[in-house]
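S., here's the first fold you wanted:
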Amino acid sequence: MRAGRLFRHMLWPDWWVLRAFPVSALRTIEQAIAESERTHQGELRFVVEAGLPLPGLLRDQSPRARAIELFAQLGVWDTEHNSGVLIYVQLLDRSVEIVADRGIDARVDDAFWSAVCRRMEAAFREGRFESGTLLALNEITQALAMYFPASGENPDELPNTPLIR
């Protein structure tokens, strides 16, 4: 583990997330998730962390491993159609990870998920956190609507509110 990474993550305050994602942006993202989920049977979760928690840092956890951990903790894998998608933003490591449940992941290749992540990261480098997230949500919505179109009853299985950790 690099000492610089450890200190950066331990010293950076969690409220820093609100500089990149102010309350107004979080509300807009929440509304976009709700609108998205009306068009398909998938479930979206959006999680932002400034830095990793201490246990993850001590294990030298990668942003990908943290995203998978949160995918399980938040029950994104536990949707009726196995179509949950977690978008994880780790600000200090400047990383975006998407973890998709087996139902949608079997239909959409890794190149798609990776491309969405890289476009978000490019937008974030330009300071376009809200618009970069909304563009990614739009792309993911199109994929979910193609493979899991809304039909009949469409329960909202996971919270739409972005999670700041």
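And the second, which I think is the more interesting of the pair:
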Amino acid sequence: MHNKLRALKAAFPHTIPVMTGYLFLGAAFGILLNSKGYHFGWAILMSFFIYAGSMQFIAVNLLTVAFNPINAFLITLIVNARHLFYGVSMLKNFKGIGSLKPYLIAGLTDETYSILCSTEPPDGIDKTWFMFFITLLNQMYWVIASAAGGLIGSLFTFDTMGIDFVMTALFVVIFINQWKSEKKHIPAITGVAVSVICLLIFGPENFIIPSMALIVLALTVFKKNIEEGF
């Protein structure tokens, strides 16, 4: 028990930046879901069992349109395809960690992955429990924020128009930071160019799936050229 408590104390400071971001994003999700007529309990359940920030925002829209399982499956697969690569890169870190492995895999979000890849536990701290508490704390932040947002939305009536733009704003900020931190901008330019072309061809309602598929295809086919800078 003492070892677990030490691991929790060591993990918490690394999750503070994630907490500040999740509190706002999770609350926005809860408010948006409530605005569509769903009880705040659904926000808790979705954040606990789905736990996929961007996909949860997309799911709000999927819940309000005609049910199309194939479309929902393809969007979910493409939006979260990056987790395939996360999982492969964490095979070594997750090797031999026992019963905690399924949860660590399920809780591997972008932010958690970033912390686990860049942080080592202090001397004397069990690495498995250190990774577990980082993952658990991050999810708890998201669940609590989603619940708070759903509750706030049920208690107060206000115009929620534009609140779903919070994820778009987040991705724009991530894009700008990636652009500044990377010397090679070919992947970013490819993503923007393919998205614009698909938007013009397929329209705003149907461009997401083909653009994501073509981006993955282009980056896979030209991976070697991109790494070498053409």
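Why I say that: The mean pLDDT is 84. The two ends are 54 Å apart (CA to CA).

Talk tomorrow,
H.
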